[in-house]
Amino acid sequence: MQRRPAWLKPLVAGSGPRYLQIADLIAHAVRNGELKAGDQVPPQRWLATELGVDLTTVTRAYAEARVRGLLASFGGRGSFIAEPYDPSQRGMVDLAMNIPPQPANRALADHIKAGMSEVVTRHDAESVSGYHHPVLEPTALQAARTWLGPMLDAMGQSQVLMCAGTQGAIFNLLQAHTRRGDAVLCDPLTYPGFLRAARALGLKIIGVPGDASGMLPDALERSCRDTGAGLLYLNPTIQNPTASTMPTARRQDIAAVLRKSKVTLIEDDPYRHLLNDAPLPISACTSGERSYYLASLSKCLSPSLRAAYVVAPSGQATTTLLESFAATSMGCSALLAGLVQTWIVNGTAKSLLGEIQLEARSRQALARSILPGSIQAHPSGIHLWLPLPPQWRPTAFSQALEDMGVRIAATNAFGVEDELPSGVRISVGGARSHAELQCCAAEDPDSAREKSDRQQPHGCLATRPIPMCTCNQASWCRNAQPDSIGAAAGRMDFSSTPP
Question: Domain HTH gntR-type: where (predicted)?
């Protein structure tokens, strides 16, 4: 039988709504140190019975505590005290770096410690202190099959490799399959890491037009024919930066063009595991022929896991890629590879992924409640795309926000050509906690005392002052007035399509 915690004092009649009294009790216990970050609060039904109130009262109380940044909830596991957050100490909030949000219960560090301990215990010193070969041995291959799932079988006679992150793999693949001056194809807006690698190798980058479903097959066929490009880079699931996901029918059409044109595909799929119903990869539609499939763990679990699976065609293509690996990174660290394998086998990876999915959904819901309906996002994604009116300059918009302490990524970071759609990418995983994402904004003076008394934060996206253009001119407005990201975006004119 659960004991009543000391911080849970009786509710007092006439002292305000009961749900607020419960939320205040939690706040008081946190301030006094009776409840610390990571502590679990009682189940709602138990608390309702203990206090003699309706379940809905406790539900409202916990919701209020979450709004104040006091609680973080996880479906099926309960509610926990969130990490403490002090807006005056926050510094820069980086919503430009695209990383997965970390669960509020501080489980990641414990998982890493336990996993590393298991790696050292189960493996001999030689196997974890030496070099790790990219070609997986049987036990590690079985872990990879568990993680990659049925799609691996659909790719035919492929070989699974492990490398030190997808950025290195992209560079190695470009190095292995192109020569300086060659043309490579991609979306008009695409992953900056691909652009940097291609430019470093002196390649000609060509953007292929698309629509709401992704790259257009006819446009791809024309580009293959007209440019002589032998390689295509795509990120079709929660695309970076637009957050669009290419439907199955379009993937099949793209695969047909690739087979006909004999163009090699690099399919970068770092966000696939954030979806529970993602379409099969394009590589599966081609049976793995002339395609490389990249599956990063750093974008769906933790940036500290600089490891990725590469599903490569068997034969000479794999040999060529291995030679490129040997010339650069020498593959993944043996310790890190062991940790990945251990997490997959013992279920830690799946459990942690579920918590990250819940946190990502919570943050996306927060962003959607603040920003207008025109944003492009997936409910489980870790970033969103905010289109701007064509008269707004994205670089000036993002610089204004950075001057205010919030960093985002503007169109020019993702663009292949000079003429680009006007927009910015906001990475909801970049805030150090759900509370920071919700609480980091400066407040107006009249609300300061209320926050001190009730710890009532304001949404950083909702209230962060920024200059906004109100005159509908073709440049950043000189007489911009203080406003907020949410309010400014809410007054944007999205009736015209950006160039």
Answer: 16-84
Q: What is the pLDDT of residue 106?
A: 58
What confidence score (pLDDT) does residue 293 get?
A: 94
Q: What is the pLDDT, as a whole number, of residue 307? A: 92
In the chain, domain spans: 18-82, 109-346, 361-490
CATH 3.40.640.10 is the classification of domain 109-346: yes
Low-confidence ranges of the chain (pLDDT < 50): 440-484, 486-499
Burial 453-466 (b: 16+ CB within 10 A, else e): eebbbbbbbbbbbb
pLDDT in tens, 428-479: 998 876 666 665 333 332 332 233 233 333 334 443 333 333 333 323 333 3
CA nearest neighbour of 55 among 22, 8, 10, 6: 22
Domain 361-490 has CATH 2.60.40: no
Predicted local confidence at residue 282, as pLDDT: 95
Burial status of residue 369 (CB atoms within 10 A of its CB: 0-12, 13-18, 19 or more): exposed
